[in-house]
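User: Quick sanity check before I run a bigger batch. Here is a single chain. Can you write out its predicted 3D structure?
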Amino acid sequence: MKILLPSIVAVSLLALTACNSNKDPEVVSSVSEDPQAAEIANRAPVELPPAIKAEKSMRCQPGNVLFFVTFFEGDKQARVRTEKGGTPATVTAEAAGAPLTGDGWTLTGTPTSAKITQPGKGDFTCKG
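Assistant: Done. Predicted structure follows.
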């Protein structure tokens, strides 16, 4: 009996080790794999919209005209309105410091001093 019991245990363990030849532990998870993981990994990086640098009401000459301008960080985008709650015209530039253009509008300058060209109305020299 003393010899038989250890040999039965040894044979049982040998049989159990033969069942799983994979040395890696089995991972059990309740979370399934994301079917779009590869697509998401291959997407282009997302660029956040620029932060607002300044919102100015600018008094412009000739004619004592008032424009409402929102300047954005990076100096590549601005929005121009002719009324406080009016529809904005977005003007953009490829590089910082270049004239901002769009929808017939042109804007050059800074939040303190700018030149605005309004479509059909002409050029205005503005102070913020």
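The first strand starts at residue 52 and ends at 61.

User: Great, the batch can go ahead then.
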